[in-house]
Write a structure and sequence with these properties.
Elements lengths: L4 E3 L7 H12 L3 H13 L6 E6 L5 E8 L12 E7 L8 H15 L5 E5 L2 H6 L3 E7 L5 E7 L1
Helix pairs in contact: 1-2
């Protein structure tokens, strides 16, 4: 695996494939990903953005997105990294950290200084340079932990 990040804004031909993959991992309708990825490709804005990593065989090995709000009640805490996923066969190889570092640099290139995420995987994200920011109420009414990286 090359550990190259594929930016969907530069590869619109991968949009449908990416939507299917993200939907299969997170049980969110493909149409939601279709809309966000289409917006990413159509606009030159920082958000939304979608990223993939492929294995040597051309299969999607990992991916993540950056959206305005990851289903929480604090729209001021934006943008949000979402749907970080690495296929089980590719975990523990530094791919998630590589993607997170890349995405933070990419967002900085758009002039964004902070990026947020909601997670229960606290140790992992802290090792990746994120710091606990605050408790956050999700749209469901449940509370999670919000992390920030500057």
């Amino acid at each position: 695996m090359k550990n190259d990040i594929v930016l969907l804004r530069e590869h619109p031909e991968l949009a449908a494939r990416a939507s299917e993959w993200f939907s299969s991992k997170w049980n969110i309708p493909k149409e939601e990903y279709d809309k966000s990825i289409a917006e990413c490709i159509k606009n030159n804005d920082a958000v939304p953005q979608w990223y993939l990593v492929f294995d040597d065989g051309g299969n999607i090995a990992a991916g993540l997105g950056v959206i305005k709000n990851d289903f929480h009640k604090r729209p001021d805490l934006a943008p949000n990294i979402c749907v970080v996923f690495v296929e089980p066969d590719y975990r523990r190889r530094g791919i998630a950290r590589f993607m997170l570092d890349f995405v933070c640099r990419d967002m900085a290139s758009f002039g964004l200084k902070s990026i947020y995420l909601i997670t229960d995987h606290t140790d992992f994200y802290e090792k990746c340079g994120f710091e606990y920011f605050c408790p956050i109420e999700e749209n469901s009414g449940e509370f999670s932990r919000m992390y920030r990286r500057i």
